[in-house]
């Protein structure tokens, strides 16, 4: 006896639903719509399959799982093997005390809309494969531990002997299912497995299989415990608690984190441009190179690894042959910035922030695992293929969405967030461990999405919709969070510049040219030195231009020490001019050039005097300048017109070998219009299946014809004359077969124009694609 024999079948239930209700089902379970089902009978068969039921169970929360588990358990009480009908009242009574009645009724309604339950209130049915929608094989929410509190379960575990606890710990670390001959009902009752089964700490699946209840596994792993004695949604925070930080403080913290992240990403791009990093045979970035970059940039390795992953996903850094080749070039592939990095470096801070945040939201990688041991005990390197995880973007979105359910500026602890995720996604308990949640929140804090345990305005905007739809709202939130750029600084007598905030882009470019960053943060400190002034002079700036910069933008009087430094460096700078011969050295002062020719640099460069003020060398311009500077001179480069040229190092770049893939949805969701077409086609198939064919006595002409030949044409012409309906079997250009009940209107030019009996829509059928035609009764 099947479940269908005991009540209304799912096919009949679906046939009675409205089009909007069927569309709602297909939206919730998109796998049912592809390929389009040939009628509600086919749709019901798909919905009842184990594979589709498992997909439908992915989005069920703990209470919905408990309701479905109770419906299955109550149905099996009478038959033992095939689910029998059960009533809504029985489910509510079974879960009394664990959840609110209205919440239980809401979950029953949700399961009905998803076709996991169907039928009237006094005869609810589940399919034979409904258990596939549950997160586990056993019935742990209706079993002996269902109403026990976590502290009671912990006390029970503390009372186990060593063998029993060791067995449970083994299952908690690996798959929850285990095989044992002692699982059979007639096994030795004194064996550890039998004792654990009797205590309810293991659930029997069959005579050789047992399963560890999820709450026991969490206790053994020291994770936040799934409460089954109270199936209500857990609170994210104490509603009566006061906010520690105001919303404005949250946004300020988010903006500060974003500016720091952008600054550190910029430092990494420049460090890789100056000295590209070697590529391991596996294509990853080795630990040794990561340590070197951490030393150069002054960043922690964990933060540096995170930034490396973001930039690599955006293709701002990639592996290739660096151009121009650096001094330490090995002739092999190396990680270096790409041209796309230069575009990003010149964008506004909000655009830079959006690029990094967008990469994190859609990046299918677990950057926080870098440095953790792999299967062989070796540290996982950055950009390793083992860090790939297609579920990572889904998990991040789920965490942020759950965090967004808390009140604004209300802090949420890691354990509270993990507990809420376990309740919302019981199938993914192992994916939302305390460690995973904690590391994901750390990354979110570094991106300015989370601050002080709360979701920021940028984070709320980022999870509001699809990537393309939210860009405008996220950028608006970012501009509000970022501090206003300043156009001034404070020049100090110790040759430092204090900048009270992020500088405007044009001022930042000038300051970074003439000074070196000493400390970053909300208020940055830059130091002016002889080398930094020379760098600005090398770029073509004059001493008067530099003094004008400090005079115009400093809110304090320009110190004499700074003025003297600039004038002193400028007085020496450019006395020697180096151009292309291979290289020439020109000097207005013969005494200075004579000193150059007597120096050790002249011997290395093979300088040869052509005149008292001119010498030439076979070395290139860059080497001549470097050698002369090492010897204590201050040369400047010039072009053929005598104009000082910018000789700053631009860094190496690589060509992007591959483009970044656009994120693909885990399962494509059909649009509402597509689903309406699917439902209309299904209804047409249903009408065609139930239509009654005309009997032979009604006409001497054939009532059925195969193919689109003369007999089919004759039957269509007969239907046109007597105004009869036709059942048409048709194969479209994509090879998809369908069946329609139509009333013919015209026939000509190889096409039948007819009106669908259910929708009154006009349809066109090519005669050569018609496989059969059947005359129907009116």
The biggest beta sheet reads: 6 strands, antiparallel
The rounded distance between the terminal residues' Cα atoms is 38 Å
The number of helical runs is 30
* Mean pLDDT score: 87
Counting helices, strands and paired strands, the structural category is: alpha+beta
Description:
This protein has 778 residues and is α+β, with helices and mostly antiparallel strands. The protein is 43% helix and 12% strand. It has 30 helices and 23 strands. A 6-stranded antiparallel β-sheet has the order 18-23-19-20-21-22. The protein has a 5-stranded mixed β-sheet with strand order 15-16-14-13-17, with helices on one face. A hairpin with a 2-residue loop joins strand 15 and strand 16. The longest helix is centred in the middle third of the chain and has 28 residues, at 247-274. The model is unreliable at 1-5 and 698-702 (pLDDT under 50).
